[in-house]
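Chain A, query sequence.
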Amino acid sequence: MPAAALPLSVLIACLTLFSACEKNPFSSPAPQKPSNETPREVKKPDAPRTGPLPMASTTEPGSVGTLFDKAADCPNRYKCEALDDLYKMIEGPRGREVVTAAFDLIAGGKIREQDRQGKFACQVIREWLLFLKNGNALDAQTGTWCMAQIRRALKTGDAGFTGSLQLLALNAGLEGAIDWVEEDVTGPGRTTGKACAAGRFLSGYLKDFDHARRWLKNAGENGLAAAICSLHHFDHDFFDVERDELPLLRKAAGVPKLAGEIAWPLLDHVEIHRQDERFRAIAGMLRTHPDEQIRKQAALLSTPEK
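Chain A, predicted structure.
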């Protein structure tokens, strides 16, 4: 039986419905052919930052000199960003640049050792040398360079830096540091006070009494001052009381009009050993000293402690 023909209106309606289903987003997707490509990872959005934003580095290339100025203006040196930047830089590739700037500050002659810039300059140099020494990177060439920088800085800088830089060189074990400090004992034009300070500095770094013997033999009053001043800090394992210490003290105490720069360190040393009659006898040798205060102290120390 032949099928009845569909009315034209019904046919149009069916075609319209079929077209709508193809465009419907909720209809099932057509199956896709499998692919060998790795699906691209979809990047998730960053989580919102909850902490403070990281601080930008304040150390710009070429700004080393200004960091010392900023450090000097810090109200609290223990919370000083500029000083922290300098300390970080000395452990990096610009370490020598920072240290050179510190020496330049001293050599400029515009700052003193007790100024904040002066203290910071010495601290930066000391920390750099310590960093190198602890890392076994303080070689002879670097030590020679540093000694040359120290001498350059002191040639035009404040003389007050001398003691700090001498101790710095001795602590770092720089080649030639002991000979350099010893120049204040044996060099021409040195004062008795400088010789005494040099003896005191060197006493902690010498491993025998040979230097003191040479001072006594060749450096006159300055040698005597350095030797006396070295006793107070010298390791007693490196010299003998009967052979070295007592003869030295007797020699100094027997000098007529002994300089106060020598007499006072001598009496200070005797006071430590006041319970020993041999040392009290040496104090008694100064009871006729021209200086009244020295005579009084000598009289006190020449008697047993009560």
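DSSP finds 15 helices and no strands in the chain. The chain has two domains: 60-175, 186-306.
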